[in-house]
Amino acid sequence: MSCQPFTAVPQPPTTLPSCAVPVGGSNSSILDACCNGHINAIATYSAPDTTTSSPSTSSTPVIVNSEDNDGCFQYCITDSPDIVQSCLAQKMEEYEKDSASGMGIFGCFNTDKAVGAKRNDDEAGYASAGMRISGGFCKSLNRKPKMPVLDPPKFVNYRQQRFVHPTPRPPPTSSTVRNLEAKAEREESGGSSVGVPERKDSVVSPLTRDFPDSELLGPSFVTKLHVALQPFKHNPNHSNSLSLLEAGLCEDAPARKPVWRRLSHDVLKQAFDKMASEQKVAENKLWGGRFTEGLDPVMEQYNASLPYDRLFYAEDIAGSIAFARANKNTGILTADEFAAIEKGLAQIKEEWASKTFEVKANDEDIHTANERRLSEIIGKDIGGKLHTGRSRNDQVATDLRLWLREQLKTLEGYLKLLIKTSVQRAEAEIDVLMPGYTHLQKAQPIRWSHWILSHTTAFASELERLREVIKRVNRSPLGCGALAGNPFGIDRHAMAKELGFEGLLPNSLNAVGDRDFVFETMQWGSSLMLKMSRWAEDLIIYSSLEFGFVRLADAYSTGSSLMPQKKNADSLELIRGKSGRAFGHMAGLYVTIKGLPTTYNKDLQESVEPLIDHIKTVSDSIQIATGVLSTLTVQADKMHAALTPEMLATEFADYLVRKGVPFREGHHISGRVVALAEKENVPMDKLSLEQLKGIDSRLGDDVVECLDYERAVELKNATGGTKSSTKSNYTFSFVRDLKTTSVTHKMQPDPHSTDVVANINYFPATGVPIPKSAWKTKHLDDNDEYTRPMLIRDVRKADKTFDLDVNGFTFVTLPRKERVGRNSSEEDVKREYYPELEEVAKKLTGASTAHVFNHVIRAHSSPTEKGIQDAQGRWQDIPSGHPHVDYEGSPDALSGTLMELSFPPHIDTLFTKSSRFCFLGAWRPLKTVKKDPLAVCDATTVPDSDYQVRLREFSRTGNKSKNYVMSHGDSRQKHEWWYMSNMQPWEMVVFKGLDSKREELGWRCPHTAFRVKGTEGEEPRESIEARIYLTARAPSIHHPDASASTQPTESSSIAHDKLRLVEA
């Protein structure tokens, strides 16, 4: 049975009939303009039955029909059919010419008035949402409509509309249907249709696949279209062809027609879904509620920052956790909601770290990506609460400061390594003399070490500046909102403390719009690059064949593609060249920000990518400089050969000054000596004594001493001069002053912190035999004649910070989480705690290998309890009550210790001369320390004379070993002891047990427990101490029994030349 026509009804239905497919075209506005606004709505129906009687034409809508329209009728609902029909007759030929444009568009609906295609239940959802949907299907997105889009026509009151039909066109014959089926089969198989012109566009048949996004025209391109008329086509598309509509919607169609029916509905559904998705694109943005259209694709890419700010994923997650915790404390989040958010964010962090995080199209930045993923994991009801009271303005400022702080601390470690490498080189090659230059001309003889330390001094100045920059970077903007602050009373101080910030930015407007910390960083980086560029320029000259003072290692040189003999100093030239790049970063940021209005503007996004590149440029340059310096070879003979007697002319003037001649007169006499040598065409040292006396009789027999280069250098004995003893003192003080400014090592002030005076149970002074009874560990109550009261300072109040390589210890703040406790099994400690400590140790020192080989849990019930086992069979170790260093360091002294430890398999390499090794102790409490805290002594305050080697016995194994114990000595009052008051389980002190490189000031660190007066009634302390073995390969790092030479070789490595400090 054929489809029945749509007959007249007294009132219009809420939807069009199910057999009606709404279609239209982008020319409706022109049509409406031509018809003077008489068109109200348009619909297309399949051909009705021929037996249907024709209603009166005087009151019916017009039927737009022609022989070329393949039996597809388009109905214009209008009150003026004659006018519309007349207009259509006049315009049909014009529309026929436009048919090739392919601007067929699925009809536009005003769902506010419940007009639409009833396809399935989804349509009710579109209508109930009250959306005005514009969109459709276009053959080619590259084609633009030839007709302008005008203002939409006005819809008449639908209660006045009459839905009746005139005499319809007869249905197609069976042969027509067969022809259409054959045509569809040929199209499906890729062939052309007989009798049908080839398509000139590239529409893909819906029989083969769904419409791609590029063929859907959404509201970004059609914004004012409300009523549309399908343009007339010789070669109709799938939306109005009889092959789709007649065959798919008529019940008596052949067997294959249900496929067409499904496809027709799929086409419409996909079009509607695309329209809706276009509408909802903006809603998927954090800012999308106010917008109804998505971003232009080019704008989407132009606006995105995720390609580079994904570097901040860890900082963004840390800030979100701190913010969520603060919101929990204000009551915005429940404890369960916070727990869900924290767990979800931890999962996201793991996804980023493992590179399994799936970035989606709407993730314009790291903040959007993380929040979107959080809502996917825990649901929007909870995930949507995370951002309460927070803006991306304070969020990005927080992320940037957190990331930059860690980067600057890493750079601090690299710069310290460069300085230390320079000092080592200067000390090892202090006897090498070379020409000193002014105006690039030979001036006076100097030491090679003097040249090195001249640049080291410049680098040290930059180290000081860097520490000042870190202080200003380390201020928190979190909680300032978009610009005006947070309305929920959030505790900004608590968030800042959790994130390791030293303080707050006090003004919300300034906090979100301030990029001074980026300026300062780039200024500092540019200043450092400038100094490294000059350093590199000198070495480029010195490494040339014309000078030949130094030879660069192959690892930092390149050759020529044409000239085999060339060895180019490309590493140094790139340092020189990249300095210009760093300057460009700084200048570009100045120009970007100079005219911005107060607070946040999108322009500030342009500060991020240059900053990232700036940090990488500076970081790479420092490391390359360190590698170049540590591996170059000094050609001492060529340096000495470059010295010439004329460089000693000033020595003649100084010689005369010592004989009472005014310097200006002596300067002229010396000049005449130089002129005579030039006249005679001989070096100054070839002039005879008679010739010299002929210039001035006061030039005596001893004037020949002025021609000694070593003497000339040693005479410069004032501070800062070239005299060797001055140089040694200078380099020692240089290393001593290298203290770190790792911000997380500097704890926040505690109102309960206090310095204390407590007894330290020293051992006898050096030279006084240690009684055998003292071979065993002293305990806190074992006071004797060597016990001394000492001031023990609280690091929470310290005005300085502590470096592992200088002071021998440092304090570290770990992430707050549950860790092993007193009841944890040995297996749990090794499985859960050892890996974390190994990563901390490697990051803290830069070592290549870290292995935790031993731990001790102390949880005793009385200070004298010893020699017993707990319920798990573990020996109860009580706090050691005397200052000691764990290891003495010689192979025989360590052998007994290593026998009882679960040591790594590569222990056989421990004492090789090419291997540097280190033992660290890592001590932290299992609960807040109220009694018997641990104190550490600043290694720079303890002279070697205050250490004494002690033979130690292990009571349970019988093994013997050696370690250092500490006497009070004459320098007792200079010992600086430090502890941390109210130490928490997430706070840890790391100290040196032994470093095989004893040139370090902090190669060992004395430590001891001590009794605080008034804490006798407190609960005993519970703590865990682990010992960590670290190694680093580098020829310049040697065992203490090896040769004293510290001259680096060409195979030295940047990464392993030092156990460099990088903040944990």
Automatic annotation (TrEMBL):
| Record field: catalytic activity | 2-(N(omega)-L-arginino)succinate = fumarate + L-arginine
A single cellular component GO annotation:
cytosol
Q: Which residues lie in Basic and acidic residues bias regions?
A: 180-189
List every stretch annotated Disordered.
163-207, 1038-1058
Q: GO molecular function, one example?
A: argininosuccinate lyase activity
User: What EC identifiers does the entry list?
Assistant: 4.3.2.1
- Domain Fumarate lyase N-terminal per the UniProt entry, residue ranges: 289-584
Q: Which UniProt keywords apply?
A: Lyase
The segment(s) forming the Argininosuccinate lyase C-terminal domain are 647-714
In terms of PROSITE patterns, this protein maps to:
FUMARATE_LYASES
A Pfam family of this chain: ASL_C2
Which residues fall in a compositionally biased region of kind Polar residues? 1043-1054
The record's InterPro entries line, in alphabetical order, gives: Arg_succ_lyase_C, Argininosuccinate_lyase, AsaB-like, Fumarase/histidase_N, Fumarate_lyase_CS, Fumarate_lyase_fam, Fumarate_lyase_N, L-Aspartase-like
Q: Known NCBIfam families for this protein? A: argH, CmcJ_NvfI_EfuI
Per the record, the similarity remark reads:
Belongs to the lyase 1 family. Argininosuccinate lyase subfamily. Belongs to the asaB hydroxylase/desaturase family.
Protein name in UniProt: argininosuccinate lyase
